[in-house]
Amino acid sequence: MPRVNILQRVKTAEGWANVALKRNAKGQICWPSSGRYLIEWRENGIRLRQTAGETPSDAVEAQKRKRLQLEAKEAGLEFLDAGQNEDKLTLAKAVHDFLRDIKTFRKPLTHQKYEHILELFSEYTAPKSEVLEITGDDIKRFLAWRKSKGFDPGTTLYTDRIILNNFFTKLGIDNPVKDVPRLPRLRKRPSAYTNAELKKFFAVCDEWERAFFVVALATGLRRGELQTLHWSDLDLQSRQVHVRAKPQYNFLPKDWEERTVPFADEVAAILIKHPHAANCPIVFPSPKSHLNYRFLHDRCKDIAKRAGLDPTEWHLHRFRDTAATRWLRAGIDVRTVQSWLGHESLATTQKYLEPSRETEKQLNRMKLPF
């Protein structure tokens, strides 16, 4: 009788793994209360696997069906499996179901990234249409194609591999991404604007622009936090801004953590004068009084251009980098800055601990002892 083993997909400290089911002293399988199962067999010396459902009965049925199929093949007979088509999982359906979960539990920007990469991957691997047809070589060729288009292996391709790995891991099958070498991640050092650059930038701002970018610089809020900021989030008397979830915009703070960030009196004075848009709770709405990230992005570039600065170097997120750097250089302890920025890891905040220009001057004044 052909050997067909049942495996369970389990999560270990090192990640997901396919493990054999435990047996008691009599050799009987000790079925877990729940899980994802696979069957494993060999053909022509090659180990093969396929999904086998989420219940013990599904797994046993898949094992029996595969044994019958292998026996028929050994006897030179054609095996007609009534459930064969039902077991096939198309790539299109798998992507659709996976993206539905991403849209429900992740942020809109994350969903957009996943949707873009998975749709590109589906188009690239055509005419393959079933999940189990995808191999590690398909993924390697896809990443090589992306690299040929000029995308950086240490940033973009690193993220592409993570997206594909998460997708195939979620399916509970033998993940083809494991055959693709891990790409080293390039972690770019944060870069802060200098006081001279900021002075030029703010010199050409109108009152609305000045208010928005002062808040960005003074609070270090992320793009989505600035975009969805309500007047009710501002406590001008206590000089604080509260970062809160906004279900109506499908917005959640990063790492699902709300927080409070203080700001100076001069920032409060600017906000007191800032006009309220009619029938709009948003502090910095687009001209049509709704959320529009491109509007804020383009406004930043336009101001830089008017100030004679390089527009390609001006981004909303860099104001956050600048806020963190200014706080640390002013002597505010790193744990407090971590809380204000909403960083889950202290190491993420510590990357802003760079020498100031004054520190560099002090270093240059040190003379060698000869």
Gyration radius, to the nearest Å?
A: 28 Å
Structural class: alpha+beta
| Biggest sheet: strand arrangement | 2-1-3-4
Strand proportion: 5-15%
CATH homologous group name of the largest domain: Intergrase catalytic core
**In one word, what is the shape?**
elongated
Assembly type of the chains comes to: single chain
Fill in the CATH topology of the largest domain.
hpI Integrase, Chain A
CATH class placement of the largest domain: Mainly Alpha
Q: Summarize the helix and strand pattern as letters.
A: EEEEHHHHHHHHHEEEHHHHHH
Please summarize the sheet with the most strands. Answer: 4 strands, antiparallel
Mean pLDDT: 85
**Number of domains as seen in the coordinates:** 3
Question: In brief, what are we looking at here?
Answer:
Helices cover 46% and strands 10% of the residues. The protein has 15 helices and 7 strands.
Overview of the molecule:
The protein folds into 3 domains: 5-85, Double Stranded RNA Binding Domain; 91-179, DNA polymerase, domain 1 (Orthogonal Bundle); 195-359, hpI Integrase, Chain A, CATH 1.10.443.10. The radius of gyration is 28 Å and the shape is elongated. It is built from 15 helices and 7 strands. α3 packs antiparallel against α4 (108-125), α5 runs antiparallel to α6 and α8 crosses α12 (316-329). It has a 4-stranded antiparallel β-sheet, with helices on one face. The longest helix has 19 residues, at 56-74. The protein is α+β, with helices and mostly antiparallel strands.
